[in-house]
Specification:
The complex is a heterodimer.
Chain A: H1 2-36, H2 43-51, H3 64-73, H4 86-97, E1 107-111, H5 132-136, H6 154-158, E2 164-167, E3 170-173, H7 183-187, E4 193-197, E5 203-205, H8 213-219, H9 229-233, E6 239-241, E7 246-248, H10 258-262, E8 268-270, E9 273-276, E10 282-284, H11 289-296
Antiparallel strand pairs in A: 1-4, 2-3, 5-8, 6-7, 9-10
Chain B: H1 2-14, H2 25-31, H3 35-64, H4 73-95, H5 97-103, H6 106-109, H7 114-125, H8 130-160, H9 170-183, H10 190-195
Helix pairs in contact in B: 1-8, 3-4, 3-7, 3-8, 4-5, 4-7, 7-8, 8-9
Chain lengths: ~300, ~200
């Protein structure tokens, strides 16, 4: 009886002891390793990360919000690098770090193309992957103007704030939703999107076409032909010519509107885009060109 | 030596752990979207598999078998693998924080990954020697890496294709995985002929 009990006891006791011994040994090793490889947690880092919006877009120039938070925890006092957080986050960060708040210019992305289906033609019938980056590989896309927006929506798909939509065959950025994170800028294969200061009547040359005037005119009825009228009109030196393409410097522009009145093709417009209206047409913050001309005449 | 190579290449191609044995599907589907995370995850899996085999084989053959405690195999193996992953995670957090953050939840998920437990149990079932077990584990990990890379390419293509609405997301991914798995059947019989 006692013999059987002893055998039974040992047949239970032995595995229990062995399993427990293995578990205990491993537990000790884990504790030792966690002590040796302990990572000191910086509480400031956690607090700063909590203030940042957490979009991880990389617009600040660091790898995600963690990178920017780390640089500030290490002593960087530039709190104005986050365009997504804007002035609010910059103010909070400045208060936390005890530095003066930076002056913050709100910015938005802007698509520099007006080549809708009304203004351009298609050179060929594209049947490939519905993606701008893919179409770009096939002779620079099916549009008659190969600098212009193809309208397949890579930017809209990439925008984490749903601020970009397609209308009339090209992309439009709803500046009221845009946080200037910069992801669309990197996505567009034609480099049409730029981040500009968010003035409600910002003047821009909505064209990136660098062909000579006659060739541009043949392929897009609203493109910049490089006539230089705007360049000669601007009294503030805000317009420069990049070959046969006019470029407006947003920092020097005083929004006087003279350039828009002299532009023969309508490539210069004022205002940033907003969302779509009931008919699906894009709304703008600026005044339409014809209305401006009528007012002046 | 030839036998070690046969075991290694069989585990990579013929009996691929993900595509032929259907082990480790969770990280396979979860991590194969991004090539960088796929690389990090595969390295972590290879390391865990090799170390787990190195630890569990002696425990099985020197502690459990001699005392007829084979039934403890599952429990003890899981404890060993879990501890091993914990140690690797702590080590990674200190030494390579970027990899640690990009793997995120998937590193502790390797603990419950049937592929790792599968490797250790298969080593025992196939009655491999210690060196053969290591070779088998390395092959399993490399096969996992191969499957992950192949599938990330397939997924990139599928993402850009015009998929019907009801198939978008997980359904088309699983169908694609099944088709890739069938394609690996073509390797059957290859390895034996290659080395014989």
């Amino acid at each position: 009886m006692i013999g059987i009990a002893m055998i039974q006891a040992s047949s239970i006791l032995t595995p229990v002891l062995i399993a427990s011994a293995i578990a205990l040994l491993l537990g000790i090793v884990i504790v030792i390793v966690s002590r040796v490889f302990a990572v000191p947690v910086d509480t400031r880092l956690e607090d700063i990360k909590a203030i940042l919006p957490g979009a991880n877009c990389g617009a600040c120039g660091f790898t995600g919000c963690e990178g920017y938070a780390q640089s500030m925890a290490d002593g960087d006092t530039d709190t104005g690098k986050c365009p997504v957080g804007g002035a609010e986050v910059a103010g909070e960060l400045s208060r936390y770090l005890g530095v003066a708040a930076p002056s913050f210019v709100p910015k938005a992305a802007h698509v520099h193309c007006q080549g809708t289906v009304d203004h351009t033609k298609k050179r060929y019938d594209y049947r490939g992957t519905i993606s701008c980056n893919a179409a770009q590989n096939l002779f620079s896309g099916p549009n008659s103007c190969t600098y212009g927006c193809m309208g397949y929506g890579d930017c809209a798909a990439a925008c984490p704030y749903d601020a970009i939509y397609m209308a009339n065959g090209i992309a439009h950025v709803d500046s009221s939703k845009c946080t200037a994170c910069g992801i669309c800028v990197k996505t567009c294969p034609k480099y049409l999107i730029e981040i500009i200061p968010k003035h409600s009547n910002a003047y821009s040359v909505k064209c990136k076409n660098k062909w000579p005037g006659a060739q541009t005119r043949k392929n897009c009825t609203i493109g910049c032909i490089g006539c230089q009228k705007c360049f000669k009109t601007c009294q503030y030196g805000a317009i420069t010519m990049d070959g046969p393409l006019a470029v407006i410097d947003q920092d020097k522009c005083t929004h006087c509107g003279e350039c828009e009145l002299v532009c023969p093709t309508g490539a210069i417009v004022n205002g940033l885009m907003l969302g779509q209206d009931d008919k699906g047409q894009p709304k703008t913050t600026g005044t339409p060109r014809k209305a401006a001309l009528k007012q002046d005449a | 030596m030839k036998e070690l190579l046969i075991i290694l290449f069989s585990a990579i191609l013929v009996d691929n752990f993900v595509l032929s044995r259907f082990l480790g599907i969770c990280p396979f589907l979860g991590v194969s979207k991004n090539v960088k995370t796929a690389m990090g995850m595969s390295m972590a899996v290879i390391v865990v598999m090799v170390f787990a085999s190195a630890l569990t084989w002696p425990v099985q053959n020197f502690i459990l078998y001699p005392r007829n405690l084979g039934y403890l195999q599952t429990g003890v193996f899981i404890v060993i693998i879990a501890s091993l992953v914990q140690i690797i995670e702590t080590f990674l957090k200190k030494s390579i924080p970027a990899l640690y953050r990009s793997l995120g939840i998937f590193l502790p998920l390797i603990t419950t990954n049937c592929a790792v437990l599968g490797v250790t149990i298969l080593n025992v079932d196939n009655q491999y020697t210690f060196v053969q077990s290591i070779s088998h584990a390395a092959g399993a990990g490399l096969g996992f890496m191969l499957a992950l890379f192949l599938f990330s390419g397939v997924r990139t293509k599928v993402d850009r294709a015009d998929v019907p609405k009801f198939m978008k997301g997980l359904p088309i991914t699983l169908v694609s995985a099944g088709l890739v798995s069938i394609s690996f059947f073509g390797f059957k019989g290859l390895i034996e002929k290659l080395f014989s």
